Amino acid sequence: MLVAAVGFAGYAGWALLRHAEFQTGGYDLGIFEQAVRSYTEGRSPVSDLIAPGYLLPGDHFHPILVVLVPFYALWRGPETLLVVQSLLLATSAIPVTRCAIRQLGQRCGTVTGVGYVLSYGLLTAASFDFHEICFAVPLVALCGEHLLSGRWNAAVLCALPLILVKEDLPVTVAAVGVYLVLKRRLVLGSMTVLVGIGTSAFGARRAAGAQRVRSLRVRRQVRRGCARCRTSHEGSDTPGAARTDSVAGCLLAACDPGFADTRVEVRVL
User: Fold this and answer.
1) Which of 46, 155, 218, 231 has the least CB density, counted as fewest CB within 10 Å?
2) Could you give the CA distance from residue 176 to residue 156 in angstroms, rounded to a whole number?
3) Is the peptide bond before 129 cis (omega within 30 degrees of 0)?
4) Is the dihedral of CA 84, 140, 1, 23 positive or negative?
5) Which of 32-36, 46-50, 88-92 has the lowest mean pLDDT?
6) How far is CA 164 from CA 148, 158, 174, 245, in A?
7) Per residue in 96-150, pLDDT tens?
8) What is the pLDDT of residue 51?
9) With 90 as the cut, is the pLDDT of residue 258 above it?
10) CA–CA dist 168, 172 (Å, integer)
């Protein structure tokens, strides 16, 4: 617990300091902050930083962000996401240190836990604004601890929430199932493999479907916007006019802001 507490203080302090010094950015902290804000307000998760009204399920499948709503409601701001991420990363040190102490003894196990907290992977994650993968770190650590102790049901219970973290993590759930099969837990292992594979396919199709819907909507906006933009500015002698291709229209400062949004959407897609 002490190792995790010190790690949390260090991660959170560093993350908040970077944010206070304007070293964080829209990608990915701003994107996820807008998604959590949308959930808090009872709306679909969108991020205008990617494109106006962009549905995030068309980018990645991460419904686990909903658990941040109570914390965000208490303190509305990106700082909430940074603190929660620091807490999740530091919490993963608890099962890792417990396993190390059980296998190596008190002294060597504690040193291993400190090394884990100071490892390159965790330090990099703590320094990278915010990312949904932070939810997976303690879950994988707990799952590994239960697997080493032979607590098969508990291991599966810790692995299953990975399905909600990101669309590619159900493969990890399936890998846990394969390990259980090798340990002759055939029924539990087979069911875990099927759940992992099935949810992986569902998550991929869900994200692809949302992306197709969003792409069609953007293409319609682009065609409509460009037609009006050409009508307004084609052949203009306005100084500073910057001509672009027929899809993006023009970049005149006098152009309607809606067309600027259209140009951003074209750039993203």
Assistant:
1) 231
2) 7
3) no
4) negative
5) 46-50
6) 24, 12, 14, 41
7) 999 999 999 999 999 999 999 999 999 999 888 898 999 999 999 999 999 999 9
8) 81
9) no
10) 8
Domains of the chain, residue spans: 2-155
How many Å apart are CA 46 and CA 259, to the nearest integer?
Answer: 20
83-95 average pLDDT score: 96
Q: Cα separations (Å) of 193 from 62, 175, 190, 239?
A: 20, 7, 5, 63
